[in-house]
Design a protein that fits this description.
By secondary structure, this protein is of the alpha+beta class. 21% of the residues lie in helices and 28% in strands.
């Protein structure tokens, strides 16, 4: 029997981690010689959900079992979730969905919607009933949306891998002891087979989170061999409880792939729009940059925030008439009359000419002249030469930016953001082979 297991919403701001529960189940199932038909999946859903804990991720385990083992597997999953979730913490609504066979069309459709929209729990419940799936939820039913969506996202298009290492219980809540120099060296030796390890512009390690959760580090890469190699290059000065390789939609722009250009703007949804810069960008308190974009249905406001680093400086160099494509999240900001797109990336197309108007230069000494008065030409203050027929000069300025794709500094990337290093490395299909080699410990 093919069995798909979806789990979501087991953590809170105080701790816990849904991928850690998946790692525990990998260990427990492996000891029972249960066959995995895929690496455990981490499925990132709409990153703009306002009530997410951190990265809005759910997990899916896909196994093949004898029919008689179903109740054992079901009980093991439920017990493991109950023992390790943060039930009782604010916003924690754990859920498990089990599906025998293959994901149905309604499940796949719901999972596509969950990448870009806010799906109500009642819709997930209806699809679960239609698909003859089994579900358990605690608190509200909100976790069912992510758990079911994880089942439907089988990652048949582009995907990446992530090796996640976990901490011993006594280390959690303390600073993570991963040597920064070894991260820099690992990044140098493994890029582009791995990505978003280190932000050299800001000298910031990106593989270690900062919260009280059990994750020690996460290494993202193009294949399992690359992330294992990267892991072995690190100098880690605390014990590692366990590690697992996941297959995931990290770094694939999955939340934009299903979007069409110039669609209707809806709050808390990703969007991509083409348009023309309407006004010069404005820098406000805090270093944030705003500009208006003209499109067929009117104007929208676009924002590049201070943490995006060099990206916001690129945005600040736009001028009216520039043709651009913007990608981001639709928000409503206090004090702003228009809906705003919080920019995640920008494609600069045709650039408008930037023209300055200057007084003519003196033909004798080369100094810039000044007006001698209305209808009296220009006079040079240095050599006193007067040019009666001279006129102002229109000079085309050299633009600092060039057409192309621009992304924020790596420290400001969202989990789903496709980094520049991945362009050209996208995968087109999954070979459906089960995990091979060493892909978890224990």
């Amino acid at each position: 029997m093919k069995l798909h297991i979806g789990i979501d919403d087991t953590d809170s701001a105080k701790g816990g981690c849904t991928t850690y529960i998946a790692a525990l189940l990998v260990d427990r199932f492996s000891k029972q010689r249960i066959q995995f038909t895929d690496y455990p999946n981490i499925i990132r859903l709409n990153p703009n959900i306002p009530f997410k804990t951190r990265g809005n991720a759910a997990v899916a385990l896909r196994v093949r079992i004898p029919d008689a083992a179903y109740e054992f597997v079901r009980e093991t999953v439920i017990r493991t979730v109950e023992e390790n979730c943060r039930l009782g913490d604010e916003g924690t609504d754990p859920a498990v969905v089990l599906l025998r066979g293959s994901p149905t069309s309604p499940i796949k459709q719901l999972s596509r919607e969950a990448l870009t929209d806010i799906v109500p729990a009642r819709k997930a419940i209806r699809v679960i009933k239609q698909s003859n799936a089994s579900a358990v939820c605690y608190g509200s039913a909100l976790g069912l949306v992510g758990a079911l969506s994880a089942l439907g996202q089988t990652l048949n298009g582009d995907y990446t891998f992530e090796l996640i290492a976990y901490r011993e219980p006594h280390s959690r809540g303390k600073p993570r002891l991963v040597d920064q120099d070894s991260v820099v060296e690992m990044d140098r030796m493994t890029t582009p087979e791995t990505f978003n390890n280190y932000d050299s512009d800001n000298r910031r390690v990106l593989i270690t989170p900062h919260g009280p959760d059990p994750v020690l580090l996460g290494l993202r890469g193009e294949n399992p061999v690359a992330v294992v190699r990267a892991f072995r290059l690190l100098r880690i000065r605390e014990p590692v409880e366990r590690w697992v390789i996941f297959r995931t939609n990290h770094g694939t722009d999955a939340h934009f792939e299903g979007s069409t250009f110039n669609q209707r703007m809806t709050i808390n949804r990703p969007i991509k729009l083409s348009g023309i810069v309407l006004e010069r960008p404005e820098r406000i308190s805090g270093g944030h940059i705003f500009f208006k974009l003209r499109r067929k249905r009117g104007a929208v406001l676009c924002a590049a925030f201070e943490p995006t680093g060099k990206f916001k400086e690129v945005v600040s160099k736009l001028i009216p008439g520039d043709e651009v494509v913007v990608f981001g999240a639709v928000r409503r900001h206090e004090g702003k009359p228009l809906l705003t797109i919080n920019l995640e990336k920008l494609i600069v197309g045709r650039l408008s000419d930037e023209v300055t108007i200057e007084n003519p230069k003196c033909s004798r000494c080369g100094k810039r002249m000044k007006s001698a008065g209305r209808g009296q030409g220009y006079r040079c203050e240095r050599c006193k030469f007067v040019a009666l027929n001279a006129s102002k000069q229109f000079l085309k300025k050299r633009r600092i930016i060039r057409p192309g794709l621009y992304l924020p500094d790596r420290k400001a990337h969202r989990h789903l953001t496709k980094p520049l290093s991945r362009y050209g490395l996208e995968k087109r299909r999954w070979n459906r082979e089960p995990p091979s080699g060493i892909w978890h410990r224990p």
